Amino acid sequence: MITQQLRNALFVVSLLLLSACGTAPTTNTADIITTTGMIADAVQHIVSPNMSVLGLMGSGVDPHTYKATAGDVKRLRNAKLVIYNGLHLEAKLGDILKELDKPTIALGENVPQDLIHHLEDYPGQHDPHIWFDVPLWMQVVQEINKTVSAFDPAHAAEYEANTTAYLKELAELDRYVRQRIQEIPTASRVLITAHDAFGYFGQAYGVEVLGLQGISTAAEAGTQDVQNLANIIASRKIPAIFVESSVPRRHIQAVQQAVQARGWDVQIGGELFSDAMGAPGTFEGTYIGMVKHNVDTIVNALSKQDSHQ
Ligand SMILES: [Zn+2]
After folding, report:
1. Which tens digit of pLDDT belongs to each residue from 159-175?
2. Cα-to-centroid distance, 218 and ligand 1 (Å)
3. What distance in Å separates the CA atoms of residue 270 and residue 176, rounded to the nearest whole number?
4. How far apart are CA 98 and CA 265, in angstroms?
């Protein structure tokens, strides 16, 4: 009797151990692995429901400094197809992504290269933040369609139809952004954030862009950078500056304090989603929602100049 109870107890313990040490649940892996959520969202629109998609970098994750976990390495190895941004965005994943023995594509390196911004201060390097120019992102979506159709030709017609439908939504998004930017007084079309993520956005939509840090968040901004930016904001009486969801707030708060010390009360205009989307299930947790949230936040803060002065 006691022996049987002991056996039962041991059986329960071993089940618990198995579930604790077992492999990742199936929902935690996918046919197609992407790096950023923006790419996962686009791929999902095209391949669903034929293939499953998982983005490694969740909400609030900074892709410039992101390192692969043991689970990520496993997911990448088990995937059928790997799709990433490239242009050195996933700086710490570079070697892992290049050494994968499977179909892998760096989207930014496969769209027409005359659309890609070269960095004047860093010869041979490019701005990786291609998702903020919606027409350029539409080229990326077409590149994803080509990639998945070549990989899974049996469903190519379906992927083509899904791509056409998503491109239509993106064209509407592009029109929305253009219309809203027109609401900002021309002199106030200046976007100041913690790092230089909005270069493509600025060029596509006619907004001057200044960042505290450079293109990557890997190098911390120095005191001199803060002072220089504060001088510009105070002398031009720029009404608002913005924090980014994937960069610590203290960077932009330091700029605000330095501007206030110069007698100009610059506001924090809100939080922008720069290099990562919002939480899954929220409006900002999709590419279209993220872009709309950003443009609404920017327009609302920068249009307030008259009442602020
Ligand atoms: Zn960035």
Report:
1. 999 999 999 999 999 99
2. 9
3. 20
4. 48
Cα(241) to centroid of ligand 1, in Å? Answer: 17
Ion ligand 1: residues, CB within 5 A, are 197, 275
Find the 178 Cα to ligand 1 centroid distance in Å. Answer: 22
2 CA distance to ligand 1 middle (Å): 63
Q: How far apart are CA 31 and CA 47, in angstroms?
A: 10
Q: Are 127 and 203 in contact (CB under 8 A)?
A: no
Select from 76, 74, 137 the least CA-distant residue to 111.
Answer: 137
Count of residues in the chain? 309
**212: CA distance to ligand 1 center in Å?**
12
pTM for this entry: 0.87
Instruction: Set out the domains of the chain in order of their start, with CATH numbers.
Output: 26-178 (3.40.50.1980), 184-308 (3.40.50.1980)
If one counts every other C-beta atom within 10 angstroms of the C-beta of residue 265, the result is 12
Give me the residues of the chain with pLDDT under 70, please: 1-27, 305-309
Residue 33 Cα, ligand 1 centroid: separation in angstroms?
Answer: 20
Q: At what angle do helices 37-47 and 134-151 cross, to 10 degrees?
A: 50
- Per-residue tokens: 124: 């041979």
- Distance (Å, whole) CA 239 – CA 269: 8
Q: Tens digits of per-residue pLDDT, 180-190? A: 999 999 999 99
Q: What is the pLDDT of residue 307?
A: 46
